[in-house]
Specification:
With about 290 residues, the protein is an all-alpha fold. The protein has a domain of about 80 residues: Alpha Horseshoe (Leucine-rich Repeat Variant). About 65% of the residues lie in helices and about 0% in strands. Helix 8 runs parallel beside helix 10, helix 10 runs parallel beside helix 12 and helix 13 runs antiparallel to helix 14.
């Protein structure tokens, strides 16, 4: 009994020592934020994020106001790693930073923290002149899954940049908002294959039967990735109307497409079809943005 008590005391002592050491190291790193060297301050905020110590949150919030753009950017990144709710308002303020990289990292951090208090501020940034900032904002909104963002993301499906359209489709799929179905169906005709692929994926997540016929048509897309995504989406919706079209994909020349079609048929409740000999179709194997 005495031996067990001694072991327990030893374990507690070691844990306490580790906590004290960790706190000391964090404080030592925080002290470096007072350095006149911006590179040293930048390394310090990165180190604080790596340690994910909640005691450093206030110091990192203060670093969002640093004169160095690099320090502010890294401070936002570190706050995103720690995911402390007290950083939400300061990060919302950082969305107005004059530096695009800082705005991107602030948006990313808010996505990681997943507090819907940031939704309105992120939506305002969808009009940012920098396309990369818009992409980070859309990714953050997808993580928040706040349906207040649906209308703005539906509008973004018409953005001139294909990657913005693609990310907006992904985000709407995560939100599973039925009001986006018509716009996503229209996106199945987009001239960029990646956009069509993600539109199909989003429709599969929303599972609205209105998308069945358009997805059946998309099974004839020239790109295998779009055909595969459409087959998978039909399997998610599980409407028997897609059965014949999915069976035809058993002879697709690409295994990825055949496998998705088989799984979709199983989800619908149809017995696994006999695999046909793949027939060359002359379709492209790689997605290309146009």
């Amino acid at each position: 009994m005495g031996k067990k008590v001694c072991i327990s005391i030893a374990v507690v002592t070691i844990m306490f020592a580790a906590m004290v050491t960790s706190a000391f190291c964090a404080q030592n790193t925080i002290e470096k934020l007072r350095s006149s060297d911006p590179n040293e301050r930048a390394m310090a905020v990165t180190e604080l994020g790596r340690k994910s110590d909640p005691s450093s949150v206030q110091a990192l919030i203060n670093a969002l106001g640093d004169a160095s753009e690099d320090v502010r950017r890294r401070a936002a990144q570190s706050l995103g790693k720690i995911k402390d709710g007290s950083a939400v308002e300061p990060l919302i303020a950082a969305l107005r930073d004059k530096n695009a990289n800082v705005r991107m990292c602030a948006a990313q951090a808010l996505g990681f923290i997943q507090d819907t208090k940031a939704t309105e501020a992120l939506l305002a940034l969808l009009n940012d002149a920098n396309t990369e900032v818009k992409k980070f904002v859309i990714k953050a909104l997808a993580q928040l899954r706040d349906n207040r963002a649906s209308d703005s993301l539906i509008a973004a499906l018409k953005d001139a940049d294909s990657s913005v359209r693609q990310l907006s489709a992904e985000a709407l799929g995560e939100m599973k908002d039925a009001k986006s179905v018509d716009s996503l169906i229209e996106l199945l005709k987009d001239n960029a294959a990646l956009v069509r692929m993600d539109a199909a994926g989003a429709l599969g997540k929303i599972k609205d039967s209105k998308a069945v016929e358009p997805l059946i048509s998309a099974l004839n897309d020239k790109y295998k990735e779009v055909r595969a995504a459409s087959a998978e989406a039909l399997g998610e919706i599980q409407d028997a109307k897609a059965t014949d079209a999915l069976k035809k994909l058993a002879g697709d020349e690409y295994k990825e497409v055949r496998d998705k079609a088989k799984t979709a048929l199983q989800n619908i409740g149809i017995a696994k079809p006999q695999e046909e000999e793949p027939k060359p179709t002359g379709t492209n194997t790689n997605l290309e943005l146009k």
